[in-house]
Design brief:
Blueprint (H helix, E strand, L loop, with lengths): L1 E4 L1 E4 L2 E8 L15 H45 L2 H14 L3 H17 L4 H22 L13 E5 L4 H6 L5 E6 L7 H8 L4 E3 L11 E5 L4 E4 L3 H24 L24
Parallel strand pairs: 3-4, 4-5, 5-6
Antiparallel strand pairs: 1-8, 2-6, 3-7, 7-8
C-alpha cells in the first residue's frame, strides 16, 4: 500500500482503477522558412481553427459547468485574439525567419514566464491558460489531434502531471471518479472546473506511470491518495464513504423545506449557482 498526501480541491471520496494520462508533448523544431508572409498566413489560419475548437468547447462547458465556469474559454479566445501575443508571434516569424509553430512556442513561453513570475497567485495560475492555447495552436499547425484523453470502458481515477482546462472539459464526466495531478493550484481553472463538476481532486501528488490500472483511493477530505489499498484501509474508507452518502441523503431530504430555526424564526437562505445541475 502506497500513500501520498497532497492538497485537496474537492471534499469527496472515490475508489477505483487508475488511468494514467500522459500528454503527447508537441516537439517543435526550429526551421528556417523562405516565404515569411505565407508562414504568417499559415499561422492566422491555424488561429481561426483553434478559435473554432474553443467555441465548441465553450458550448460544451456551458451545458456542463455553467456560464461562470465556462467563461475560462472566453478568456482563451480573447488571448488568441490578443494583439500583443499575435504581434509577438508574427515578429518572431519575420525577424528570425522561422516556422510558425516555433514562433508560437517561443511567444507562449515568454508570456507564460512573465505571468508565473507575478506576485499575484491568480495571475500566476493564468500561465497555464497561455500554455493551453499555445499547445492548441501548435497542434493545429502540426496537424495533430486536440481531443485530450480517450477513456474506454470502466470509470477511472484520472492521474496526470497536469490537466489543462480544455482537457478537463472534453473528458467524459461519467467515466471520471477523481482527478489526481502532480502540478496545478487551487486557483487554476482546472481546479475550479473539478469543483463545479463535483469530482474529488487532489493536486501536488508524485503521480507515477506504473500506477496505471492499479486500484486506488482518493480521499478529498484529507488530501491522501492511496494506491493498492489493503483490506483494513478499504473497510475504513467504505465506512467513511457511507457516512458521506448518508450526509448527502440528509441534505437532499432537507431540500425545499422552509429554513426555520428551532425558536420559529424564518431565515432566508440563498446560494450562488452557475447551472441547473448545481
Amino acid at each position: 500500500m502506497e500513500q501520498q498526501k497532497g492538497k485537496s480541491i474537492y471534499r469527496k471520496i472515490a475508489a477505483g482503477p487508475v488511468f494514467y494520462y500522459e500528454k503527447r508533448q508537441n516537439q517543435v523544431k526550429r526551421e528556417r522558412i523562405e516565404d515569411v508572409e505565407e508562414e504568417i498566413r499559415h499561422f492566422h489560419a491555424a488561429k481561426v481553427v483553434a478559435l473554432g475548437q474553443l467555441q465548441r468547447i465553450h458550448q460544451k462547458a456551458l451545458k456542463e459547468v455553467g456560464e461562470e465556469n465556462a467563461s475560462v474559454f472566453e478568456v482563451h479566445m480573447m488571448l488568441l485574439e490578443d494583439e500583443d501575443f499575435l504581434d509577438s508571434v508574427c515578429s518572431i516569424i519575420r525577424e528570425q525567419q522561422v516556422n510558425a509553430a516555433y514562433a508560437v512556442a517561443t511567444a507562449g513561453d515568454n508570456f507564460a514566464s512573465m505571468l508565473s513570475q507575478m506576485e499575484d497567485a491568480y495571475m500566476q495560475a493564468r500561465a497555464a491558460d497561455i500554455k493551453d492555447i499555445t499547445e492548441r495552436l501548435i497542434s493545429v499547425l502540426l496537424g495533430r489531434k486536440t481531443d485530450g484523453a480517450d477513456i474506454a470502458g470502466e470509470s477511472v481515477i484520472l492521474a496526470a502531471d497536469d490537466l489543462a482546462p480544455s482537457e478537463t472539459v472534453q473528458l467524459d464526466k461519467s467515466k471520471i471518479l477523481a482527478f489526481v495531478t502532480r502540478h496545478g493550484s487551487a486557483n487554476s481553472h482546472t481546479a475550479i472546473l473539478a469543483r463545479s463538476m463535483g469530482i474529488p481532486a487532489v493536486i501536488g501528488i508524485d503521480v507515477k506511470k506504473e500506477w496505471n490500472g492499479r486500484q486506488a483511493v482518493v480521499d478529498g477530505f484529507t488530501g491522501i491518495v492511496t494506491v493498492d489499498p489493503d483490506e483494513a484501509y478499504m473497510e475504513e474508507i467504505q465506512e467513511k464513504m457511507a457516512q458521506d452518502a448518508r450526509k448527502r441523503t440528509l441534505l437532499k431530504e432537507l431540500k425545499g423545506k422552509p429554513t426555520v430555526t428551532k425558536d420559529g424564526r424564518t431565515v432566508r437562505l440563498y446560494a450562488n449557482i452557475g447551472n441547473v445541475t448545481e
